[in-house]
Amino acid sequence: MKTQVCIIGGGPSGLLLSQLLHTRGIDSIVLERKTKQYVLSRIRAGVLEQGLVDLMEQAGCADRLHAEGFVHDGTLISYGQEMFRVDFTEHAGRPVVVYGQTEVTADLYAAREAAGGAIEFEVEDVELHDLDTDAPYVTYRVHGDDRRIDCDFVAGCDGFHGVSRKTIPTKDRKEFEKVYPFGWLGILSETPPVNDELIYANSPSGFALCSMRNDNLSRYYIQVSMYDSPEDWSDAQFWAELKRRLPADQVGNLVTGPSIEKSIAPLRSFVCETMRWHRLFLCGDAAHIVPPTGAKGLNSAASDVHYLFEALCDFYKGGSTARIDAYAQTALARIWKVSRFSWWMSSLLHRFPEQSEFDSRMQIAELEFLRSNRAAQAAMAQNYVGLPY
Ligand code: FAD
Ligand code: DHB
Fold first, then answer.
1. Which pLDDT tens digit goes with each residue over 293-316?
2. If you count Cβ atoms within 10 Å of the first and of the last residue's Cβ in the chain, which end, N or C, has fewer?
3. Sheet holding 217-224, edge to edge
């Protein structure tokens, strides 16, 4: 088989890139290791920046997002019994949209299928070849058949554990990592959200987040030990711990119920600065991971897709390689700022194992400064709604 861009990974990055390229008549094939059902069963991000909403529009996939997404003009931050609000629209001129990654992915699959886009599921043993030549190709096995795709470029959209980044020789790869000593236990429950805006909570027992998917579907997270597994936490224990971490007046509004999903995500900051290696371009989690505090993972995947899409359009329209050559530098300039914001929010809101009384006072002082200072709120709001592309 032959295509212009071979895309490894059928998560949000790979699908969005494929659909955007399609709108400009650029051909791609997506290779996905799992089934579509499996990809759609992963509950992940829930907050979309305007930049991602715009890309979904450009891809012709934003109708359901506009109909069903919830526009949020601000967020609440609590510490102990105190709580304050940061207004996004006032300080940054834009809101965010609450719409699950699962729905984004489902909309993108629907669009690719409607357009007759090529997606191969359940591929195994994907290998990238001759990336440092003008004629790269990808080999893989699907349902026992060995296949080969010749292409102009390979887009590595296969997440943190994918094959693309690992194909870059170690000596050429520049990577940075920080692992946080805790995880997030998340549950989904068919209950009304405790509040109509998100609540990020710093408490002496650790971080908590109250989020949502719709009027009767809530998403809650609590900071847990990195050694815990979801089976260690009954629903009753989860709700008791969440209540301990929220201000009393919010606890009064909390409706509990059985969890319909429960999972633990580790927290990590990771950047592979080698986002381009000859004919391979890394996008999204394949190139970088942020801790989830601040909801930047999916959104920074989208900004990579934007830069790569524009670069490939230039190349196929007029043969210019200027934006292709600048891809890593352009994408990284934003990625490092997003990494800083996610690290800052994580540092502000979690309880660290080695945290001293002094460190806790510093967190409270920073929260009180944020609460009382418009410039600090503006800085947070501008980062939260998304830095410009
Ligand atoms: P992925 O979504 O990881 O997609 C990569 C795809 O590539 C997958 O479908 C995978 O099956 C496929 N793949 C992997 N290897 C291969 C291979 N060798 N061949 C073919 N296909 C392959 N972000 C937030 O903002 N908020 C959150 O609450 C949040 N929660 C998260 C919870 C978890 C458990 C994880 C892992 C991430 C979470 N994130 C969250 C981050 C966010 O979901 C990611 O940033 C986003 O999914 C990145 O999209 P992506 O397409 O780049 O990568
Ligand atoms: C969600 C996840 C986040 O990491 C975040 O900062 C906000 C919301 C969510 O899953 O809804």
1. 999 999 999 999 999 999 999 999
2. N
3. 82-87, 74-79, 199-202, 208-214, 217-224, 175-189, 259-272, 288-289
